[in-house]
Amino acid sequence: MFKKHFGEIILFVVTFIAASGWFFSKNALSGFPPIGFMGVRFLLAAAIMLPFSYQQLKTIDKTQFKSSAITGGTYGIYIICWVLGLAFSTVFGEGAFLVSLAMLISPLLSWLIFKHQPAKIFWIALPIALGGLFCLSMDKGIFHFSLGSSIFLLSSLSGALYFVLNNQYAKQVKLLPLTTIQLAMVGVICSIYSLIMETWTFPIPNSVWIWFFASVLISTNLRFLLQTIGQKHCQIATSSLIMLLEPVWTLLLSIVILGEQLSSIKWLGCSLILGALIIYRLPAIWIRRKSFNR
């Protein structure tokens, strides 16, 4: 049983680690400036990846490096928006579902930028997701987004742009050098911004360093390793469906840890967004299963 579903189980753990990363990072922000925290985090993550990717890094050409750097820069914008959302939000469940909308925004951006026609199922899932977004925006009968939720929505848009550019420009770059360059780009962009715009307070408490290293070693490096292993042993369509559990875990952890409370209409909004994401992914699973059973 375990061997048969090894990949699915690993990816299930990955979604929980990804959700936990929201809280590791939030606790680390009590001693770090937000953008500076991400700069140090991603530079360290890139340094940890470097010994494993060094030989492959030497083989990539200028075009591949440029593609990796561009997508890494876009990922940096996404990370800046995400961490600012963390800094200005006290609850994460709603934010996690807003960020997950990137999966449905990306086909729309790909269509607008590169003329890639979305699958027909997309046009069914999109209005359902928009309905969920409308429900999440309702607060006591009026249209309203908190500052944190608004930033999370911007994070979703920038994340979608990263997905589109990464899919378009980084297909020919091997995984390890691509990841290392992208991590380094995020670290450099955030560090430069932080040194110019943010104020650092020293000394940083030891408890904050514990959360910092948890976010680096567990949420970044361990998550990347386990996700790579899990996807290797799991069909891509199934893995993409399992990864939808991240906002669910984040919401549940936010309820337990932060005492987040959602109104019935916000619960409906989360459910509609999750339903839209599942609907969008189901045809790929059916196609994969049919081809596998032949």
Automatic annotation (TrEMBL):
It is found in: Cell membrane. InterPro entries: Diverse_Substrate_Transporter, EamA_dom, EmrE-like. One of its GO terms (cellular component) is plasma membrane. Keywords: Cell membrane, Membrane, Transmembrane, Transmembrane helix. Residues 6-137, 148-279 form the EamA domain. Signal peptide: none annotated. It comes from the Bacteria. It holds the Pfam family EamA. It is a multi-pass membrane protein. The chain crosses the membrane at residues 7-25, 31-52, 73-91, 97-114, 121-139, 145-164, 176-196, 208-226, 238-259, 265-287. This is RhaT protein. It comes from Mannheimia varigena USDA-ARS-USMARC-1296. The lineage of its organism: Bacteria, Pseudomonadati, Pseudomonadota, Gammaproteobacteria, Pasteurellales.
